[in-house]
């Protein structure tokens, strides 16, 4: 038999073109011959365009910034780093009151300024927006004079709401006047030095559970503030065309009978591909005593016309699958890197089949329902909703759009063969649909069934789990947990210790090597068939766990643990993440201090210039002041210009993270205001990134 590397290149090209990044890189590692064969950028391009066309790596390759072979390698590195709990770097990147992370940009508030750092690009400069200028404008604006007149600008408080496509939205509040407004700021610097643009400011009648979503052209904000005739609050949404500062509807759109009040546990909102989406895992304001099926309720409408609302229901689960611990439930929307399709990702902690043990499972549901024709029940109810909207509303709904929205109940064409059906009466509104086929790739259990009741499980209660999410490309649970190191000491409780808890899985070999489901050595058989009897795509996949891992390990250097949790008590942890990094902030060490913002990166290409090797011991001089200013590349032969100082608090006096006076050097950037310009004239400017002066971060491998 000919050796495997004797196969012609044309055949390897066809094989490699059909492999995802994991299989492609693993195959290239078999031997040197295969490595050289699979270095072909043509083969790598076919693989990338088939499996990760909408990933950051593929976009960089398409733009010519990296090769497609490098794109596959980077995607593999990021996914493996997440799945094996081996991040590439960790750094204290900033101090701030609050932050948000989106599209690879970190936005945070620091000492009255809004600062933006391109994390994915490891930028050396930050955009800085002077919020004091905006406060002055708002306080003097005739449009807001009735709300903000005679209000001390120092009483105005800003909260970050959303960032996307170079636009930041903030909520500005004046508590003493009970006034608030939503502002949108364009922070792009495409034309060089600029004063920035305040795109619009809108006074809000209510901020109850306010959310904002936008892209570069349209903005939607909503509140859970309208009391409907059934006695429950409902969501109202207002759309804006950003460039023209124009409302898209005269009155806000009310999502009638759209159940769910908490963003995260029960519903989520997102803008994707020209549409606004609203997803809820609730079907009624009141629980039905006799019920069988749970659904996702999905709404969407074009960004340019919010009156054209479409809605669908997607099967979620059968209640007989077991009770749910709702305190762990979380729902969000993600974009598939392969198809660009929007996905519902939901975490549910369930007592499987009403057993004695409960565990988490992440479920993924593609939103493909709008590509299909609505069911007869949905079509008839949509017609009823339209006719109801044309007949008008009561006085309570007179201030909002007259759309009737969702029906308050759905007819059931058939009931199950269940004795409980005899208890139903004319007032019952049960939901029932036969169970759907759920592919293994669309759900990931924290533990296999055989491990649910095992002794070695190391779980953390909700109060110790500070943040939880799911990384779908890496098929990995990610938790930030507080795991204090237990030591025999009589000097009080141990200090908090933040760690990552990651549980991942991988696809099994398609060959049943152990004979688990049939004859040994044969391919796994598809689990399901379509209505036409043909095997369902992907139903032959099998997965195996890669275990639960904690990082850093117990024997990690103390410098790393003190970086991950700068103060003795972590307090409330605020966190955000994407496919390649995790950002979180902890409680400040001193009252009134700024919160340290820590970045953990799983992407080797995020290479901040100040990072040091963790295994390199700090010199005595560095140990005296760990948050040092060793910007040798800037400070060696260049005079410092126009310095200014910022006081940040990172720990008690004498500690490795003591309060210190930081000096920022002027960036040698074409976008920075030139010497002699009055910086106070600028709403937006560039400055050296704060992490350069903090100078505290490590390469971990």
TrEMBL record:
Q: Could you list the residue ranges that cross the membrane?
A: none
Identify the InterPro entries for this entry: F-box-like_dom_sf (IPR036047), F-box_dom (IPR001810)
Task: State one Pfam family annotation.
Answer: F-box
Instruction: Tell me where in this chain the F-box domain is found.
Output: 1-47
Q: Where is the composition biased (Low complexity)?
A: 377-390
- Which residue ranges does the record annotate as region Disordered? 372-412, 619-659
Its name, as the record gives it, is F-box domain-containing protein
């Amino acid at each position: 038999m000919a050796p495997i590397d004797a196969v012609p290149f044309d055949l390897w090209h066809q094989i490699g073109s059909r492999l995802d990044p994991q299989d492609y890189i693993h195959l290239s590692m078999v031997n040197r011959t295969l490595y050289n064969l699979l270095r072909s950028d043509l083969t790598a391009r076919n693989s990338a365009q088939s499996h990760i066309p909408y990933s950051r790596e593929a976009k960089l390759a398409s733009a010519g910034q990296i090769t497609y072979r490098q794109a596959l390698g980077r995607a593999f590195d990021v996914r493996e780093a997440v799945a094996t709990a081996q991040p590439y770097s960790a750094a204290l990147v900033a101090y701030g009151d609050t932050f948000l992370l989106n599209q690879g940009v970190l936005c945070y508030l620091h000492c009255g300024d809004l600062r933006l750092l391109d994390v994915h690009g490891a930028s050396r400069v930050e955009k800085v927006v002077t919020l004091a200028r905006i406060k002055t404008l708002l306080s003097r604006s005739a449009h807001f004079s009735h709300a903000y007149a005679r209000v001390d600008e120092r009483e105005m408080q800003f909260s970050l709401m959303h960032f996307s496509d170079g636009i930041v939205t903030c909520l500005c509040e004046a508590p003493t006047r009970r006034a608030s407004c939503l502002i949108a700021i364009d922070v792009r610097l495409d034309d060089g030095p600029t004063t920035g643009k305040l795109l619009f400011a809108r006074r809000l009648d209510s901020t109850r559970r306010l959310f904002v979503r936008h892209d570069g052209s349209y903005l939607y904000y909503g509140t859970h503030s309208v009391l409907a005739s059934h006695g429950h609050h409902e969501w109202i949404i207002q759309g804006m065309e950003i460039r023209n500062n124009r409302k898209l509807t005269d009155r806000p759109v009310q999502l009638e009978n759209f159940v769910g009040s908490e963003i995260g546990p029960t519903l989520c909102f997102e803008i994707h591909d020209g549409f606004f989406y609203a997803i809820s895992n609730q079907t009624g304001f009141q629980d039905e005593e006799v019920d069988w099926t749970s659904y996702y309720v999905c709404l969407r409408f074009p960004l340019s016309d919010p009156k054209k609302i479409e809605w669908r229901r997607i099967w979620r689960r059968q209640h007989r699958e077991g009770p749910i611990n709702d305190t762990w439930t979380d729902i969000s929307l993600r974009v598939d890197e392969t198809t660009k399709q929007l996905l519902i990702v939901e975490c549910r902690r369930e007592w499987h089949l009403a057993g004695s043990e409960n565990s988490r499972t992440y479920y993924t549901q593609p939103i493909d329902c709008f590509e299909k024709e609505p069911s007869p029940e949905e079509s008839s109810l949509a017609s009823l909703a339209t006719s109801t909207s044309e007949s008008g509303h009561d006085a309570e709904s007179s201030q909002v759009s007259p759309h009737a929205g969702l029906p308050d109940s759905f007819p059931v064409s058939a009931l199950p063969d269940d004795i409980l059906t005899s208890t139903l009466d004319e007032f019952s509104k049960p939901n029932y649909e036969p169970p759907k086929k759920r592919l293994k790739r669309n759900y990931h259990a924290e533990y296999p069934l055989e491990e649910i009741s095992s002794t070695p499980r190391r779980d953390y209660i909700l109060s110790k789990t500070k943040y939880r999410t799911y990384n779908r490309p890496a098929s990995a649970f990610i938790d930030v947990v507080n795991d204090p190191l237990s030591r025999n000491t009589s000097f009080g409780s141990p200090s908090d210790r933040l760690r990552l808890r990651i549980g991942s899985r991988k696809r099994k070999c398609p060959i049943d090597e152990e004979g688990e489901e049939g004859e040994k050595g044969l391919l796994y058989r598809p689990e399901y068939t379509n209505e036409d009897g043909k095997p369902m795509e992907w139903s032959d996949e099998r997965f195996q766990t890669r275990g639960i891992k904690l990082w850093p390990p117990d024997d990690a250097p103390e410098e790393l643990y003190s970086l991950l949790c700068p103060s003795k008590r972590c307090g409330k942890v605020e966190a955000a993440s994407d496919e390649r990094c995790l950002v979180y902030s902890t409680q400040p060490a001193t009252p009134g201090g700024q919160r340290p913002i820590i970045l953990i990166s799983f992407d080797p290409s995020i290479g901040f210039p100040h990072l040091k090797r963790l295994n390199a011991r700090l010199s005595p001089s560095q140990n005296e002041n760990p948050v040092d200013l060793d910007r040798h590349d800037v400070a060696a032969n260049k005079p410092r210009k126009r310095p200014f100082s910022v006081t940040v608090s990172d720990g008690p006096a004498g500690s490795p993270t003591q309060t210190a006076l930081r000096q920022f050097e002027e960036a040698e950037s074409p976008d920075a205001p030139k010497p002699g310009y009055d910086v106070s004239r600028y709403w937006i400017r560039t400055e050296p990134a704060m992490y350069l002066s903090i100078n505290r971060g490590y390469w971990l491998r």
